[in-house]
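Lab notebook page, bench 4
Experiment: in silico fold of construct C2
Operator: M.H.
Input chain length: 158 residues
Purpose: comparison with the prior construct
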Amino acid sequence: MATLGLIIAVIFFLAGLAGTVLPVLPAAPLILAGMFVYGLFAGFEGLSVCFFAGQAVAVALTFLVDYLANMWAVSHYGGSRLAIWGGVLGLVFGAFFGPLGVILGPFLGAFAGELLASRRTVHALRVGIGSFVGFFGSTVIKLLIEVAMIVWFFLVIF
């Protein structure tokens, strides 16, 4: 039964990694769910409460990275506080509009926030582009965290 659980877990892992690049699937939560499914099939052998707590912290970290990377990139590109909050709100509200919303939401939010703050379109556009940089940077960092989650899982079960 553990082999079937492992096959299902790997499918969850692949879907989760794909969800990081194609933000339509909840990436890290899928990876954690795959580990839980494996645990159900294998009787949770080797998968302690501490293991799952650590994995849950890693999942939370992937969400935090989204917000922090966007905030850092917008401010690094000269964005005001209004642009930073616009980018964060764009990320939150963009999630309701699927993958395109997740990508365009922070850009539009940062752009609108900076346009309100500085009234300079070119500068606001530059700040909006900074939100794209934050999005792609956070994607790389989240992939690294998720790969570490999966490696930790395999180290524990084998």
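Observations: DSSP finds six helices and no strands in the chain. The chain has a mean pLDDT of 94.
Next step: discuss at group meeting.
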